[in-house]
Amino acid sequence: MPFHFLYSQKTDAGRLRDNNEDTIFIEVPEEPELLKKRGALFVLADGLGGMARGEEASRLAVDEMRNFFSHFERLPPASWLHQSIQAVNSRIYNINQNTTRNHWMATTLTCSLFKANKLTVGHVGDSRIYRVRDGELLCLTQDHASGRHTLTRAIGTDLKLAVDIYESELKERDIYIQCSDGLYAYVSEKDLRRTAMGFSPPESCARLVDLANQSGGGDNISVQIIQVKKGLGRLELLGPMC
């Protein structure tokens, strides 16, 4: 029996930043056959604030992934994510080559593709995706960073880019939390797990953003939450897409 999902997302500038350099995106095809063919895509990009155009970089990365997904062919999810993220990197890197270094832009990029009974993740940077399974919280991604705000790998800084790919079988009642460092740096793993397990995806997103802001809100905050359910039906959106 196939899985279906409940999900939501929320992004916020935080308490100290004037603008939001995070960009988030969810794409769920309307047609059941297209949904079966492509799956559902969750994208989170956190533009580098230490560079001149972080907001532009994150928006461009997400727009490119949206465009690639609209032309998703019959590639295995891991191959498609790897090729698409490499293409996003090349696009932003080539733009950077036409400007001075102090006007370069870069971003993290984490993309989760839910298709059939499997999750495939493509990841660059220090955004994260967590899984809550049987009450236990596990971070599925590895940060490409040597410290807070010091990335060792990002979209747009180098022509050659290593993309981490993760694959995992879905299990009923799994909960996935995809978020920027503006969330996990201010919210404990205990509160991440407890909130995601205790509330619907829209309520969980709102509460986690509030918790990050209450703890200082020193960075942009973005979170996407997906709950896995067993049963028939398409992926279902609950809550505001703000």
Report what the structure shows.
With 242 residues, the chain is of the alpha+beta class. It has one domain: PPM-type phosphatase domain (Phosphatase 2c, domain 1, 4-Layer Sandwich), CATH 3.60.40. It is built from six helices and 13 strands. Strand 6 and strand 7 form a beta hairpin. The longest helix has 21 residues.
Question: What is this entry, summarized?
Answer:
With 242 residues, this protein is α+β, with helices and mostly antiparallel strands.
Relative strand content: 25-35%
Helix proportion range: 25-40%
Largest sheet: 6 strands, mixed
Give the number of helices. Answer: 6
Strands in their spatial order, largest beta sheet: 7-6-11-12-1-13
Give the class from helix and strand content and strand pairing.
alpha+beta
Radius of gyration: 17 Å
Q: Using the alpha-carbon principal axes, give the shape.
A: globular
Calculate the terminal CA-CA distance, rounded to whole Å.
Answer: 32 Å
The overall strand count is: 13
CATH class: Alpha Beta
